[in-house]
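Course assignment 3, question 2. Fill in each field.
Student: A.L.
Task: Predict the tertiary structure for the chain below.
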Amino acid sequence: MKLAIVTAYPPSKVTLNEYAYHLVKHFRQKETINELVLLTDTTEGEKDITFKEDGCIITVKECWTFNSYANIIYVTRAINQVKPDAVLFNLQFMKFGDKKIAAALGLMLPLVCKLKNIPNIVLLHNILEEVDLGSAGFTSNKLMQKLYGFIGTTLTKLILQADTVAVTIEKYVDVLETKYRAKNIKLIPHGTFEIPKEPDYKVPTEPMQIMAFGKFGTYKKVEGMIEAVEMVRKSTGLNLEVVIAGTDNPNVLGYLAKVEADYKHVPQVRFTGYVEEHEVPTLFNESAVVVFPYTSTTGSSGVLHQAGSYGKAVVMPDLGDLAHLVKDEGYQGEFFEPTSVESLAKAIENIITNEAYRIELGKANYKAATALPMSEITDMYLDTFYNIIVEKSNLSQVLIKEAIL
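Answer field:
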């Protein structure tokens, strides 16, 4: 099978590029795939496809640009040129741009594939029905929230034109099937990027690192985390370092620089900047606790799956998609009230002052992470493509299977 994937891809700063990296890494190992074609956004640096493992051919075609109105034309032209057997879209609503028209035009691409009779799946990482628009930084204006809701419903209907829409959380399946009466929704969990061997759960204590990882500034804000750690330092006397790993959200450029300036009087606060893939294991392994300083959620958390794979205890708000993951996939953590610094401080303190509890949480999260390795997730996509191809063809299943194998 020649599989095309429409996605942002490292070194891109567009959202979901890290997820695409791990999808590609594992798709490449599948015997049923003889070529992967990456239809990506344009970037200054070369795409990172230098995997250690052997695998199929990978072809990169940079054919779209964030916020370009012409993306639908350029991506369609690229699809016509490479003639893939199937197309996977790695999407969220603002994948192709944060301008409404550019975003909407890009999200018409699954419909284009359907009209061209190319088997296609949309991996949809979030749905607007489950996003608190005020807390997530979109808008607090009630009228604008209704407008966003209307736009979101329209865009969702476009996405649902795909052969199959894969979502990562069970609640999303319920919402899409109930509200839109969709019959083409499938639950395919987020999966865990890498499964290292089980750690020994020991962490450095001089200092003990309290880490947050992601793109910050909208619904992910770190001021409360810094203040909470200050409180814990005073109450426990422990040597604690705050590690803010990651970059600004593209919509809030300059956020972390301002935080760094505002809190320069606070000792042992480290801003790492962009974290390269090879730096991720060290970052997680040296952290005692991973904190999710969120006021809202917008999809399944890749950071939670990563934290689990390294056997980390986590502190998170009991809301939205994080709560669904705890229920559906077995992750565990210490919870806090999203708007309360005192609640966050108490949650952090409960973990770092009780080593047995920290290790218990880490073991539970490692178990949850290892239950859904990326190798199994990519198998789910291939099985789904196989079923779509069968439905689209008059050939027998045996002949089709022989053809794509």
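Instructor remarks: The first helix runs from residue 17 to 27. The chain has two domains: 2-191+374-404, 208-370.
Grade: pending
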